[in-house]
Each structure stands twice: as structure tokens, then as C-alpha cells.
Amino acid sequence: MQEQQPTVYVIDDDPSVRDGLDSLLRSVGYDTRCFASPRDFLSHPRSEGPACIVLDVRMPDASGLDFQDELTRIGYSIPIIFLTGHGDVPMSVRAMKAGAVEFLLKPFREQDLLDAIRQALDVDRARLKKEVASADLHERFASLTPREREVMALVARGLLNKQIAGEIGLSEITVKVHRGQAMRKMRADSVADLIRMADGLGLTETAIGGKGGGPASASR
Description:
The chain has a five-stranded parallel β-sheet with strand order 2-1-3-4-5, with helices on both faces. It has eleven helices and five strands. It starts with 6 loop residues before the first strand and ends with a helix. The radius of gyration is 24 Å and the shape is elongated. It folds into two domains: 7-135, Response regulator (Rossmann fold); 143-218, Arc Repressor Mutant, subunit A (Orthogonal Bundle). Helix 7 packs across helix 8 (172-186). The chain is 56% helix and 11% strand. By secondary structure, the chain is α/β, with parallel strands linked by helices.
């Protein structure tokens, strides 16, 4: 699948800074969207491709650090690069601990910013790749019958066919058929592969115990 054009969001209340960054980033091929405030940014639809934010620390309506915290609270995952003309060590430590990719002091070298943006976009590409893989895994799991899900979960616990048969009241041959179907639908090349997928789906022993819609309870 072809990657969509990377997008760099610039949030800074200074029009001259926004214009300068827009010109720089477009000159090296980035799709750039500029905003005067965090509120303006949040009201704009997000690109589906890899993206990052270049964010000023000090703005009239909200500090960049507080906005970083807000994005975390609402589950908005996007790498952030901070720019500031008034930075200090505690400020940079707070930003980096909260997941910022870089904290650059103005005036900064253009190459330092471009390097940070490249790193941030790589981080977001990895996130998108993981999300796509997770969605595909859940889609395959959804194609299983309730009994196949139950057998898969018990396989993930390390039970053998004979043990699974005794646990759910089926013949060993029937369990073998269900396990084979689960492996085929999940596109697992081996039992170990199926177990890794089960781990990725969170099919834990607690979930199998019948508490609120686990794989075992779903089939009964």
C-alpha cells in the first residue's frame, strides 16, 4: 500500500514564524498545515498519513506543554517537536518525559528541525503500521466461530488437544478440526504463530475463565 504524503502541522501564534516554517518545510516536500493556536488545530481534520506537530511552547491561550498533556488525555497520538525561545531544563525534561521527539531552542538550525521532523515521522509511520496490523489481526479473529475462538484461547494457554477436549466436552478429533480451522483463518503458519497472535489479541487466562464475554463464555 502506497504511503500518503506526510503532513507537518505547525502551531505557533507568531505569523512570521508560521510563514517561515511553512516555506522551509514545503521547500523540502512536506505537506504543511499551519495554525495560530491549539484550538484551531483540533478543529481541523487530521491527515490519514504519517504526521507530526511542530509546536511553540509559549502561546497566549494555552502552553504547548499543557496542550501536549491534553492530547494524551484525549488519546490523540502524534509525535511532537517543541520550539521555544524561553526554554529551561525542567521544561524540556517534562516535554521529553511526556513523549516529545525533540525540544529545540530558538534560533535553531534548520537542519536540526528537519532531522527532528524526519525522526518524528518515522515514529508515526511505526504507529500506523502497528495499527494496521492490529486491525487486520482483529478482523481475522472476528471471522472465527465462537468455538474456534475458544479453542484458540485454550491453545494459547498451552493445552493439548486432549486437554482441550476434556475442558469443553468435545472429541479430540473435533478439537483438532477447530484448531486447524482457526489456524487457517488466522493465517498462522504454526501453533507458536497462533499463540503469538493470541497474545496480541489479549486472550489471557483470565479472559478465558468466563468473566464477561471471554472466548469460553461466548461459545456456550
